[in-house]
Amino acid sequence: MQALIDVYIEPLRALIGTEDELASEVEIRSVFPNIRVIYQYNSAFLAQLEESVRAAPSRSEASVGAVFLTFAAWLRVYSTYINGFNDAMQMLRELERRDPAMIKFERAAERRDKRCFSGLPSLLITPVQRVPRYVMLLSQLVKVTPNSHDDHDRLVKYAPDLLRGLMGGSTD
Q1: In the chain, where the domains are located
Q2: What would the pLDDT profile of 68-95 be if each residue is shown by its tens digit?
Q3: Which pLDDT does position 171 carry in this prediction?
Q4: Which of 22, 34, 83, 108 is the most buried (most CB within 10 A)?
Q5: pLDDT confidence of 166, banded at 50, 70, 90?
Q6: Distance of alpha carbon 57 from its chain centroid, rounded?
Q7: What would the CATH number be for the domain defined by 2-167?
Q8: What is the pTM of this model?
Q9: Are 81 and 42 in contact (CB under 8 A)?
């Protein structure tokens, strides 16, 4: 997601108001909705996971479940992005159709930064794919956390409701 910000969003914003402008601020927000918020969430989540592992006497004693449950409510920031994904892709296609320089901009980004080698559409789908991964991770965490672990009771108590919310339905 940092690549989306560094290689696409900021350079596109820098072009606003110039003769090389490829997209307006509204169009940029349409293609990249909520990316900064999602990036900030993921950065904080990762930092807390790393701290939990670092502070624990051993990796098996880390309170990963507690961190996950603390940050899980923030997973809802993905819903705006996921719900708007098709519109974002439609806007991107419109920008590419309207000005072939947009396609050149994307190809240059792919060559300039190895994080972008798979192309902009592949980077844009990454947040959409992340929520199911978190759901799978949390499901596994519930299954493999020993009864004696500090996280066990919290996970058993809160994970089912959280999973239902993330999946938009029943976990049965």
Answers
A1: 2-167
A2: 888 877 777 888 888 899 999 999 999 9
A3: 39
A4: 22
A5: low
A6: 30
A7: 1.20.900.10
A8: 0.80
A9: no
